[in-house]
Structures
1.
Amino acid sequence: MKKSTIKKAEAKIWRAKLTRPFSTAKGQHDLLENVLFSIELSDGVCGFGEAAVATHITGETVAGTLGNLRTAALEIAGRDIADFQALMEEYKGKFSGNPCALAAVEMALMDAVMRKKKMPLWRFFGSRLRTLHSDMTVVLGDISEAEIATREILRRGIRSFKVKIGRDFDRDLKRVAAVARIAGKCPVFLDANQGFTAAQTLKFLKELAWLKIKPALVEQPVPKEDWEGLAKVTREGKVLVCADESVSSLQDAKRLIKEKAAGAINVKFMKTGILEAYEIARLAKRNGIKLMIGTMMETPLAVTAAAHLAAGFGGFDFIDLDAPFFMEEQVTRGNFVTRSGVYDLRKVKMGIGVIPV
Ligand SMILES: [Mg+2]
């Protein structure tokens, strides 16, 4: 790689309107409000990263993340881009309590390095490219809203559904039944976002079984610190359990394997940063754990970056990259997902392939 230094870096708030509020058992997004981190090299090559702040899940704040990334922008100016791995290690230490800021720094550095090498980002994670088929989420709401959303998703050509549950047992049961009825043979994933106890989840699954509904998986049924509850649903639920909020580090992933607490992990850059997410994916695969790739409320920049990991590494059983479908405003250029949820990165020439506008 020809020598070049980071000429300048910048962090700023990045907002976008959503098509509808994104409601889960742990909170609601009415607006996307993230932090964009951009770097420019001395030879004119740029790199872009995004931090999606999920305060209701990780406790991080937009103000804190912006402050940290502004500090990073000052610190990395003048550094040699060839040292990007050392830089990523450095910020792994500095931003250990602010993983979405770490993800943004890693993303911008990797984007710039791969642009400089004139290679797509997925090559960083593997030698063969896969096509991905994303699900789409039916957010919390009433039963008729769930029915309308399910029909819309089917009309788009998407063939797997993630239904948010965990706030209202009886209504959630009716919503899942409505979605399953319309979805027919398409897989339905349930995501309680920590909203139930183990006993409630097992009862919920039993009631669904009486209705002859078998979800393809249930995600994070119990509070993130309730490892025993998670393991109990895994042992007794007769359904694949996917840990999301419980696995916020490589350490958590190791614990999950040791305690047989779940059979799948939802990997998200914003929980751990990019390199640690990659490590979790490799550890999971070596141990027979299934993988989901997911995101927070993120623009196509960060979502496509996540798609590069899943498409390059392979081995992701569940693709949950539907955040772009909830955006009303276009804040990026470069689109590699179809209306029907198919990610095809063959046309990405270099880096992530998506830039902010
Ligand atoms: Mg989840």
2.
Amino acid sequence: MASNASPRADIAKRLSRMIQLPTVSAELESRGNTPFEAFVTLLEELYPLVHTHLTRERITDFGLLFHWRGSAHNTDPAVLMAHYDVVPVDESDPWSYPPFEGHIADGFVYGRGALDDKGPMVVLLDAVENLLIAGFTPARDIYLSFGGNEETFGEAGERIADTLHERGITPWLVLDEGGAVVDAPLPFVSGKAAMIGVGEKGLATVRISARSEGGHSSVPPPLTAVGRVSRAVTKLTPRTFHARAPRAIPRMLALFAPRSSGPGRMLYRTLAAWPWLNARVFATLGGEAAAMVRTTIAPTRLSGGTANNVLPSQASATVNLRLALGETVEGTARRLRKRIGDKEVTVEVLEGNDASPESPSDGPQFALITEAVRASHPEAITVPYVTMAATDSRYFHRYCRHTYRFAPLMMNAEQRAAVHGIDERVAISELERGELFHRTLIEGLSA
Ligand SMILES: [Zn+2]
């Protein structure tokens, strides 16, 4: 059923109002609950039909779950996600406009959260409100899931996912932040691409430590605790973990090949045809390409010893790892121990979460996302890739095979750099396109 919905005016003003509430989850202690509660109230004011036609549940203090009943019974729902907390602003940063003013200028809305993730939230809520105004009912049930502590790895997103799971609900589709519409995504590739995250890397922070006899440094043993830990860290080269290309990569390259010029066309076509080669080539390229095909290792801290001339009784190094798709924290720690191969060295996991599995990029869910992109960003091709950052959707990915990460907004390199940085802003024309994306997606859900 086509809705014939037409968008309400002033989407930029609604986003501006959201930005004006400083929902900084990392500063909850100093700012208190007030901005978060005010945000929940603001949503009631901005989206009256959402609040009358959908049921709202509060899950923990920071999770909002809206349920929109579809026309068909007993079908698996779509879960559309965003988060309304933001990261802090460094007071000394030279913003063009105050970061919590929601300033509108030159066709942009400025402020913390404009892209991450209040912009993606406003386009979703606007689409639902517009469809409700037109009297539309979706074919499947839809849940809108909003977390208020995503940036601090809080539990709202996890509790929402658990709640649906406990109720025996397995979503047909989960869509959260992650990818975006970007320009010239790879060398030699021209034009725009909607990058859909079909998986996200995991994370592990481990402490590598050793102990040794103390004493005066004039009579040292062959290896002190500092020496032992250093040796262990040196062994952790990028080759510690095997490179393996997710299925998304050959697909991505095959889609990019016809859009490439010069040597790129041949290169991408060849790589797409030989998946085993991708892992090697990407690993050799380093940087983001390498990060897509294997677990990365970054030693971040070192400590040990108490004085210049005293043998250290202990030393340790902290290593931050981003796990390749399908890898577990436990398996990663095991591999590190094996690589280090020293019984005197302890490898201890401080924190971590497993990488997600990979969602298919050839099913009806991916096709629906592609169709919605065609409506909102007709100049872009829709391409699967691997998201480097963690999102709340990882809790759904534990039990929902069709979890995707994409915010339907065009972001150039400069704008992407402003996420978590200075002068975060979104084009008003992109908010309008983002609303169209979600409207098309929701209308296209068939039971
Ligand atoms: Zn975010």
